[in-house]
Amino acid sequence: MDVSESASDANRREELPDNEAEWREELSEEEYRILRERGTEARFSGDYVDHDGDGEYRCAGCDEILFDGETKYDSGCGWPAFYAAEEDNVVRKSDDRHGMRRVEVLCANCDGHLGHVFQDGPEDKTGERFCINSAAIDYDGE
Questions:
Q1: For burial by CB atoms within 10 Å, which of 43, 57, 103, 122 has the most?
Q2: Whole-model pTM?
């Protein structure tokens, strides 16, 4: 990473809300519940479940690029699914909530909860299935 990219990353982080009250002002109620409180939207209810396009999916909290539209596929799980992420822009974290052992996916820039990643994705690709809440992402493209 060169110096200009580091400065850009630092500036982006400085522009984020400083506290939860500011996050509440910045995000919709649903976005806040999912991104900041680690919520989940109902299956098949999100805007991007059946969405197709070759653009980019960005974090709804900070606009960080998270997924390329070419990696989106229909997994039948009820949430947008991707077989790969922009690895430098996501963080994986162990999640033992709700009596399950899962791997949570967070935005590396704003720590927003995106969803979970599972090891039952397309075998001919990465074998991973990033199961992501529609309310946690925005689409940028055609």
A1: 57
A2: 0.88
131 is catalytic: yes
From start to end of the chain, where are the E strands?
A: 56-59, 65-68, 72-73, 81-82, 90-95, 102-107, 113-118, 129-132, 137-140
| Residue 3 confidence (pLDDT) above 80 | no
Residues with Cβ within 8 Å of residue 64, at least 6 apart in sequence: 12, 58, 89, 107, 108, 109, 110
* Cα atoms in the 13 Å half-sphere on the side-chain side of 101: 1
Of the residues 59, 62, 110, 131, only one is catalytic, namely 131
Measuring CA to CA, how many Å separate 57 from each of 4, 8, 51?
23, 20, 11
* Model pLDDT for residues 50-96, shown as the tens digit of each residue: 999 889 999 999 999 999 999 999 999 999 999 999 999 999 999 98
